[in-house]
Design brief:
heterodimer; B: 2 domains; 0% helix
Chain lengths: 71, 218
């Protein structure tokens, strides 16, 4: 496990705690990283599909935007 | 007419009742004269318990600094946020991630469930599929963090009847130099009615530095 640090600042007492992440917090980091990878992969797949569709239609991205009326 | 008395039909009230400059004469009960000592500077005359009294007017509109927190490590949580204000104004100065192209994210009350929806301009629909709120996007690591600034507003953060919406405005240094700064806006919604008492900030990867100032607005 990487040594990841968390800071907790109690705004009422002004107490500041700095400690290593516990198991639950570290598990959340892993979940977040997996979600990010999944989103990046999905974006990449969409971009590839878009590029392939434009090539199939024989138009540019700008021409596609004109057709759809989007900005 | 008797001298040295405030005249009335019953012979008047002794001036000695008013002992100090600024004293006010009032009736503490029917036909019972009483002295109200002068209040302090800026106090206003009001009524409590059926009699006049001086009181300090409630603050309104101004911003009160609730906390100043240094961002550090992988996450920084600000807990026990004062619940007596109407809106939070959060200034994040010098957000500087350890790696390139890093987002600044936040969570309310440690909620990491899919309760967050990012929004953009008018008419943009977004489902509550996010597990965090995006504050700033694509910040590069920088040696001039002073160029990086985010301003979050969270109105009605203690209201337990509505979902919460944030409005975020950012100026970010793209290449570690103030000569190249990107300005952007973002907002997100949190579909929970709980009052916000804790906010966790964290970078999308690595560690971060910077300073968070939380202000309360009445």
């Amino acid at each position: 496990m990487d040594k990841k640090m968390v800071t907790i600042h109690n705004a009422e007492t002004n107490e500041i705690i700095e400690r290593e992440m516990n198991a639950d917090e570290y598990a959340q980091v892993i979940i977040d990283e997996e979600n990010d990878k999944k989103l990046i992969a999905e974006k990449g797949a969409k971009a590839e599909a878009r590029t392939a569709l434009l090539a199939k239609l024989g138009i540019t991205a700008e021409e596609a935007q004109l057709l759809l009326g989007s900005n | 007419m008797a001298t040295n008395r405030v005249p009335d039909g019953n012979g008047g009230i002794a001036p000695s009742v008013l002992t100090t400059t600024g004293d006010i004469l009032y009736a503490s009960a029917a036909q019972t004269p009483a002295r109200l000592a002068v209040g302090s500077t800026s106090q206003v005359l009001t009524v409590a318990g059926g009699v006049p009294t001086w009181a300090t007017p409630a603050a309104s509109g101004g911003m009160t600094l609730l906390s100043t927190t240094s961002l550090s490590g992988s996450t920084t949580t600000i807990s026990s946020i004062d619940q007596t204000y109407t809106k939070l104004e959060i200034m994040i100065v010098g957000f500087t991630p350890s790696g390139a192209s890093t987002d600044l994210r936040c969570r309310f009350n440690s909620d990491s469930s899919a309760h967050y929806a990012a929004g953009a301009s008018s008419g943009y629909a977004s489902a509550f599929t996010g597990t965090y709120g995006g504050v700033d996007y694509g910040q590069n690591s920088s040696t001039t963090g002073a160029a990086n600034f985010s301003w979050m507003q969270i109105p009605f953060y203690t209201n337990t009847a509505i979902w919460k919406t944030t409005f975020n405005m950012n100026a970010e240094s793209l290449n570690g130099t103030p000569t190249s700064v990107n300005a952007n806006t973002a907002l997100f919604n949190w579909n929970q009615t709980s009052a916000i008492s804790a906010i966790t900030f964290y970078p999308s990867s690595g560690t971060f530095t910077g300073t968070v100032y939380i202000y309360g607005v009445k």
